[in-house]
Design goal:
alpha/beta; eight-stranded mixed β-sheet
Length: about 300
Amino acid sequence: MPTIVPLSVVQPREPKPEWLKVRAPGSPSYLRLKELMRGLNLHTVCEEARCPNIGECWNHGTATFMILGDVCTRACSYCAVAHGRPGAVDTAEPERVAHAIQTLDLNHVVITSVDRDDLADGGASIFAETIRHTRARVNDCRIEVLIPDFHGNHAALRTVLDARPDVLNHNTETVQRLYRMARSGGRYLRTLELLGRSRRWAPDIPTKTGLMVGLGEDTDELVATFKDLRHVGCEILTIGQYLRPSTDHAPMARYYHPGEFRELKRIALDLGFVHVESGPLVRSSYHAHETADAYAVATSSG
């Protein structure tokens, strides 16, 4: 008799709750921005990280520019950006980014990058050049940079701060216990040091960071992380739901309910953060313009 091999039971994927469902992109503004990015050979983290808000943000003409290529030297288990050996640095990229910002007539932009551990300064000089070129073309544009940790290179951080961004953002991503699992090459204490050093060196530039929830952390760990961030002077916090890009990425422990995000926001504000964005679809640069406006109002009235 033939051997019968039982088929493995494949568990269906847990459906996303209603509060995580978004419309597929396709508005005229979205298509215009996409065409411009392709024409200038530019990348956005919106596309590379498969952000669920791409339709909403691009419809409003807002995008997060990703400089230094689209291949990361690290392989963080939560991230959808490709990793491997990056290509050569494109020294003309800062001018193209500035041209795109001018063409789109933006008054708040976010500039981020892949990790470039292959470069001596981690790409800090390209961040600085992008800021300078943008200032030259659009002097009243508010510039937020979402930087990597530069492997703890203090001179690289100084290079970025000397170019005078309006907001210095570096994501914490998760609680200390989960760093080894989630952040390839990252260090929790290095993140805190970067944020604290930025506040000491440039106290007039607000620091911002983002956290994902749903990787297996508990509330006590999140609160401890909030306290660590406040201890180093971080003032702006974003909290959003981790969504697993594929089965090759870190598993998601659970979905947080919108009510839980509201409670996390309350806790963070009680600990002294000036502004907190907390919700299932919140990402580090989601509503960045509104966040910066709210921060400015809060600090001017406080």
